[in-house]
Amino acid sequence: MSEGAAPPADITPEEFFTQWVPAAVAGDPQRRARLGDKPLRLEFELEGEGGGHFGVHVTEGVVSGSVGPLPEADLRVRLDVATWRALNPGELSAPEAFLRRRVHVQGSLPLAVQPHL
Description:
The mean pLDDT is about 90. A 5-stranded mixed sheet has the order 3-2-1-4-5. It is built from 5 helices and 5 strands. It has helices at about 15-25, 30-35, 80-85, 95-100, 110-115, and strands spanning about 40-45, 50-60, 60-65, 75-80, 105. It is of the alpha+beta class.
């Protein structure tokens, strides 16, 4: 996460994507404003124990999460659970993770580098 509160260290990926992210965005006007009005579908594939496929859906500034692969996504992000855990509290920056090839993106690169959530 870029700005705002970090999720609890022991949060599961499913809780993060389906509960924490929607609540964090709903409670932060700046995050909602950054999302704009354009609908977005983001898929995160976390590899390793506790991982899986998770979707983040943005519609008119409202965020919801889902479990399972998305049939269509504007952006797909693949990383392992350890990298995801290091990114959440800021121990590892997104650009550094990308440069170290710990994060792989497919889809709109401009969308990948914009701060959203």
